[in-house]
Each structure stands twice: as C-alpha cells, then as structure tokens.
Amino acid sequence: MSDSLRPVPRTRLYEQVVSQLREHVESAGLGSGDRLPSERELAERLGVSRASIKQAILVLEVQGLVEIRHGGGTYLRTDTLAVEPVATLVERQRRLPDVLDAREAMETKLAELAALRRTEQDLAEIDAALAAMRAEVEEDRLGEDGDRRFHAAVTTSAHSTLLAEFMDNIAEQIAESRHESLQQPDRPAQSLTQHERIAEAIRAQDTQAAREAMRAHLVTVSRVRLLNWTPDDA
C-alpha cells in the first residue's frame, strides 16, 4: 500500500494569525518602533477570538520581535516579523535549562580562575571585548559579538585547557542562550554593566567577587520569557 497519504498537520489558529501579522507588517511597510493594531481591531479584522490574538502576540514577544507596553499597545522591535516555527521554539525551550546549568557550573569557575591567573594581555582582551559590546549597545544593537568576546576572554584568562574545551563543545548552545537573553527588553545594557563588574573583580584578582559576579550575571541570563511560555497558553 502506498504511504503517500499521511495525516495533514494541524496548524494552530494563532500560528495562522502570526502569518497574517507578518504579511500585514510587510504590506503596510511597518518597521521597528511602529505600533500594531489593537487586539480588539485585529480580532475583528481577522475574524478570530482575542485569545488567539493574545497567543499570537505572545509568540512574537517570546522571539523578541515585539514589545508589549501595558496600557500602550504592541510595538515592533524589528523591521520584519521573521518568525520561527513553534516547533523550533519548543525544542529550544527544552534545551535551554540544561545549557544554563552548564554555563553556571563552568563559567563561575572560569571567572574565579581568571581572577587568579589573568595576565596583562588577558585584561587587554577583556577590555577590548567590553569596548566592543559598549559600542554595539550605544548603537541600539543587542551586543552579541561583544558578549561572545567577553566570555571568550574570561575563558582564555582562566588558562584551563580542559574547561576551554568543554566551553568550545557547547559553543553553539551558548550562542543560542546568549541571543535568547539579549533580546529581552533592556537586557543588553544590563548585561554590559554586569560584565564590567566581572571584569573589575578579575582585574582586582578577587576570586570570590569574580565568581559571585559571574553567577549573578548568569542568573540574569536565565530570566527569559521563553522558559515561562507554553504553546497552548490562552
């Protein structure tokens, strides 16, 4: 018997709403900072419940594409709604807690070792990474490259070959958690300030302060909307 006939995938209604919103943004020429129509207007124009609209907006918020201002509406944070499939979000949500656990276990130790072993050359690279991230943040960007450089510089400063190998093995997952964190509202500037505290402790060779500053930073990194989201929220 032919296996060409397979069950038709069920598309959630709010996913169809997301698709409609993406098309609306493109056709209306909307961009970052522009306001989307109200939930009531969208529900009326699309012929769906406000619950479906809320869920669609939530999916966009989880991906850092819109900002919900309480009492003020929903605003675009990007020029296009390049939406990831819900299945991709669910898979990333599943991985994220393990990645964050691994980062805390390794990077707090790396910060401690960096404070103990850093050289002047190491400090120069840490400062260069901070400057790069600062420039990105001042340009209203996420600061991902500067963030990556900073954590890499701390890892190098620890002078631990094995820990550096462990970090390299999960570099892709770390990059994913970095992007997830930095797309939270006001997070880039907050992360930069926390990086500066870590750098100060490393420069002062205060191992305990470096460890605790890194731990506090990673607690902040873990506070992302994705971890509290479920596909079937109403």
Defining traits:
234 residues; mainly alpha; 2 strands; 67% helix; 3% strand
Describe this structure in words.
By secondary structure, the chain is mostly helical. Helices cover 67% and strands 3% of the residues. It contains ten helices and two strands. It has helices spanning 13-28, 39-46, 50-62, 86-117, 120-138, 144-158, 161-169, 171-182, 187-203, 207-221, and strands at 66-69, 73-76. It has a two-stranded antiparallel ribbon. The longest helix is centred in the middle third of the chain and has 32 residues, at 86-117. It is elongated, with a radius of gyration of 21 Å. The two termini are 41 Å apart.
Strand order of the largest sheet: 1-2
Number of strands: 2
What number is the mean pLDDT?
91
**Biggest sheet record:** 2 strands, antiparallel
Shape by Cα distribution: elongated
Strand coverage percent: under 5%
N-to-C order of helices and strands: HHHEEHHHHHHH
Number of helices: 10
Portion of residues within helices? 55-70%
Unreliable residue stretches:
none
What would you call the structural class? mainly alpha
Termini separation: 41 Å
Rg value: 21 Å
